[in-house]
Amino acid sequence: MLLDALPHLNTVPLTISLIGGGTGAEQRALRARADKLGVADRIRWHGVVPDAERVYTAFDVCVLSSRTEGTPVVLFEAMAAGVPIVATAVGGVPDVLSAEEAVLVASEDPVGLAAGIRDVYAHAAAAARRARAARLRLEREFGVGPWLDRYAGIYRLITRGGGASAPVAA
Q1: What CATH number does the domain located at 2-159 have?
Q2: Chain-wide mean pLDDT for the chain?
Q3: How far, in Å, are 40, 77, 83, 102, 145 from residue 140 at the CA level?
């Protein structure tokens, strides 16, 4: 989807850094798609980058253009780095980020994805505010402290006998 969005971003001076691996066949298909769309010269294919979270601060925007997702760790890494995020609102993404913290777009909408990316460049102050809000949410809801507090609450509930009751035969 990001490749399909690139032709709609000709007025935005950007180069896409693709991080991550796929099978050789997937990579070949994506490279062929980039060639067909005439955007191959705007893409850098980095493959798997160990400790990729170290390089996030070099990016203007983190784009997650997934068609499906669980709860993607890449979002937590981008949030921690304070990088503006544009993501498709699929799977667990809306559970991690809201419109106050990122630009969320529909899946399968490359024009919408391009508009979200363009918005980050056109409204840098608003993008920076969303990135700060995302970082605060990360600390507040997904940091080690909040997770430990949730687990402690679960254990307290279980040890007090407040867990799920056994089914009753009718």
Answers
A1: 3.40.50.2000
A2: 91
A3: 40, 15, 17, 16, 8
